[in-house]
Amino acid sequence: MKTFITSLIGFLVLYSPLTSIQADEFEKSKLRSGNSYIDASQEPPIIVHENNVIYEHGQLTIHADKLIKQGEDAGTITAEGSPVKIHHVNELGETTDIEAPSISYQQQTGELAADGTIQIIQKSKGDELTLIGNKLRANQRISKGFSFVLTGNPTQFTLQQPNQTAIKAVADTLRSNGKDRKTQLVGSVQLSQGSSNTSAAMLTYDGATKRISANQSEDGSQQVVTEFYWQEEPTTDKTETEKALEESEQKNETETSDNNTSSEAPKQDEDRQ
What we know:
single chain; 4 helices; 14 strands; about 55% strand
């Protein structure tokens, strides 16, 4: 599953003449809303789009109640909603859906920020990854890809794969790097799947290999600990072993009864004499 990184690349070029200038051409986008206006009372003036705002750029769609553009080429873009919804489909058909009360993007620095209840859902080939937090900070220039940090109280991670019990985890912080397509949960990590519970200092989900690994802390003070719980399930059908044991017990009881009958017969004859 490709990470949140790839899924938000389209958003990062939202109203981004800076990116377009670097490419020596302007990228096409479309914005629809109920109404829009320029607020010249602000310095610099801001452009406001309101009422059912829909922004489309390539495979990316943003739905918001209000979208504000402030500043020139390197200005700030803010989308507000209840919530703001972002939908992205990449070339492999993988989707990313993000919900947040508001999202702001600094075009000059590449910084993206969101606060409040944040939910990210990614789907790829039957896998569904859900991330929940309350503070998102991201940047497309830190590495060769889009990097982000998601924090919460706690940050939540749920991975649902076909025909598998959901894997759930919580941690202090979740971070991802677009270059290696890995998502890491860091700090007080608690993972559960069915009746199995694991605690660790760090948990890593590799989106390319679909592998989840747990690691101890660097100083070894917090090791990886896994606990298993199970209980016997009541069954109505007897197993082959149970049937064989019952047959053996019944046979022994019959033989014992026959032996007792045989030993009592001579004693009765002696009494008659």
